[in-house]
Amino acid sequence: ELALLRAEVAAAKQANAASAAQAAQAHDWDEAQTRDLFIDLLLKEAGWALDKARDREFEVAGMPNAAGKGFIDYVLWGDDGKPLAIVEAKRTRRGAMEGQQQARLYANALQAQFGQRPVMYGTNGYEHWLWDDTSSPPRAVQGFHKKDELQLMIQRRGSRARLADAVIGTGIVERHYQHRAIRRIAETFEREQHRKALVVMATGAGKTRTVIALVDLLMKANWCKRVLFLADRVALV
Asked: Which whole-number Å values give the CA distances from 22 to 27, 61, 70, 231, in the listed order?
């Protein structure tokens, strides 16, 4: 049953990716059109006004080319004047992640100039990826984050505690296998930089308490602020 469910999820992901690729192929917009028709709109929906010259085509130095200069498609700025994120745009028929290395070079340049490393977006108008290379690999996202969300991402780089050092709430879970499960998940998140985990436990083994203790650990270490807890019975929540 689990294998069947995984196969269905994988098939749905493939169908979604194929649909996005088909839409991109059907509308071969160049990069300027992609920005005007899609990226600008999505950024403004997320609260980015894009009304200052430095928001687009921001010039940076230290690039590996003859001129030693580069121009970042978009820079999203914080209230303190430091860069929160950059957006590397590609035309619709190109992969959203094709500009990954370019984005990294831009992030290096901004970090050298402002002392803060921005997170990176890549987009072709249909597909979007987000990359904070200080803590996690690139991942697909639905769109762009708001300013306060990006500020929280940056702030957590320095405020998150090590999960390996965080204390598990023994008032929530006491069994040794529950502690092992929580530690293994924490290791997966922290050391291996994964963003999801599946815990399989027998009936009566204390799954709900294990997850509650895990959430408690993550919140105490400032890894999360709000958690959506879904359960199959009202009594559990």
From this structure: 9, 37, 32, 36
Find out whether 60 and 74 touch, Cβ atoms under 8 Å. no
Range with the lowest mean pLDDT among 20-34, 47-61, 115-129, 132-146? 20-34
For residue range 34-50, list pLDDT tens digits in order: 887 889 999 999 999 99
DSSP strand E in the chain: where? 56-61, 69-77, 83-89, 119-123, 128-131, 139-141
Pair type for strands 83-89 and 119-123: parallel
Instruction: Delimit the domains of the chain by residue range.
Output: 27-158, 161-236
CB atoms within 10 A of CB 204: 6
3-state helix, strand, coil in the chain (%, to 5): 45, 15, 40
- Amino acid at position 41, single letter: L
Q: What is the tens place of the pLDDT at every residue in 52-89?
A: 999 999 999 989 998 999 999 999 999 999 999 999 98
Sheet holding 119-123, edge to edge: 56-61, 69-77, 83-89, 119-123, 128-131, 139-141
Cβ 77 vs Cβ 55: under 8 Å: yes
Q: What span, in angstroms and rounded, lies between the C-alpha atoms of 121 and 50?
A: 16
Q: For residues 88, 91, 95 and 98, what is the CA-based torsion angle, rounded to 10 degrees?
A: -40
| Count of helices and strands (H, E) across the chain | 7, 6
3: Cβ contacts below 8 Å, ≥ 6 apart: none
CATH number listed for the domain at residues 27-158: 3.90.1570.30
Closest CA to 110 of 146, 74, 79: 74
